[in-house]
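R.M. (postdoc): so does anyone remember the format we settled on? I'll just put the structure tokens first.
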């Protein structure tokens, strides 16, 4: 177990180093940030002084070493656009993104698992066919189009839910949440459903496929031959054995929800990190872009590391032949 964790941790460090190198080099070709920070009347001498103060004239290896050293301490420099430390900006936007991601993942799990179990145990029922049709729509339609449809239906036509913003939030020290207010709950429903719909369809189809495979195995037939009730056979024996691959997929999709919340936050003007990243791209704010890419990779690597450890603990086959 310890050796397995050490190997995965070493691989994670290599991935983070490569991502840091890509984040540092790739965004150096998106434009000159000085042009976005000054006006047309700024002289060449003032521009050069600004570049020198920002460290843009230093050699690339020096800049990269400074970037990595700062990233280790969660210091990503100062935003060119907002004139504030990037870490402080992320701290303000992080609660909104994590809150949206958590509710999206919760929606995907609470709806995807029961739908997948029902569709796997009742393949020929009309409700199972409806679930499969809904999952096909969720996989086929792009996220921004689903968000626009939900806004048109529930915000414009029915006027039940707000179409943008986070609603009223409550500050709890360093954390702000909208889950303690009625307007906050109303504001998060549409973006959470939009972001979690694809994940829900993926989980549902995976559960269905695994259930169809598991219920054909010998130990399920033996459990039925022993006279065990269908509820115990389906939920305790069949569903339990389908959750091993589901944990892997769900863990990776949790990282994907956080990483790909950019589109949803843009459609609903959700004040999270994804919306700030798009604004940074428009303004060539390199510190924010680099930090966002590095942070996204860190979330993916961390979630993947945890999933690997859980998979190692749950599946005894991975421990066969290991000291």
């Amino acid at each position: 177990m310890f050796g397995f964790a050490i190997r995965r941790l070493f691989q994670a460090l290599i991935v983070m180093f490569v991502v840091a190198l890509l984040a540092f080099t790739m965004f150096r070709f998106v434009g000159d940030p000085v042009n976005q920070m000054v006006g047309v009347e700024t002289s060449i001498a003032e521009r050069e002084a600004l570049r020198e103060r920002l460290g843009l004239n230093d050699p690339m290896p020096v800049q990269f070493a400074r970037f990595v050293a700062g990233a280790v301490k969660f210091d990503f420099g100062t935003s060119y656009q907002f004139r504030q430390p990037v870490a402080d900006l992320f701290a303000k936007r992080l609660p909104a993104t994590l809150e949206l991601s958590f509710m999206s993942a919760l929606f995907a799990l609470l709806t995807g698992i029961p739908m997948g179990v029902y569709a796997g145990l009742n393949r020929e029922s009309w409700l199972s066919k409806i679930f499969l049709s809904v999952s096909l729509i969720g996989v086929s339609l792009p996220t921004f189009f689903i968000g626009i449809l939900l806004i048109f239906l529930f915000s414009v036509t029915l006027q039940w839910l707000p179409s943008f913003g986070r609603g009223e939030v409550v500050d709890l020290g360093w954390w702000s949440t909208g889950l303690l207010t009625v307007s906050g709950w109303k504001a998060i429903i549409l973006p959470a459903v939009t972001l979690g719909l694809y994940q829900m369809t993926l989980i549902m189809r995976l559960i269905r496929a695994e259930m169809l495979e598991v219920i054909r195995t010998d130990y399920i037939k033996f459990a039925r031959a022993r006279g065990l009730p269908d509820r115990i056979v389906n939920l305790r024996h069949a569903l339990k054995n389908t959750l091993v691959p589901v944990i892997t997929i769900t863990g990776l999709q949790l990282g994907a929800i956080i990483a790909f919340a950019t589109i949803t936050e843009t459609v609903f003007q959700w004040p999270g990190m994804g919306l700030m990243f798009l604004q940074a791209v428009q303004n060539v704010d390199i510190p924010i872009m680099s930090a966002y890419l590095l942070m996204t990779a860190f979330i993916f690597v961390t979630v993947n590391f945890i999933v690997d450890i859980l998979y190692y603990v749950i599946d005894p086959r991975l421990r066969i032949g290991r000291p």
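R.M.: ...and that's the designed sequence above, right after the tokens. Also worth knowing: The two ends are 9 Å apart (CA to CA). The chain has a mean pLDDT of 80.
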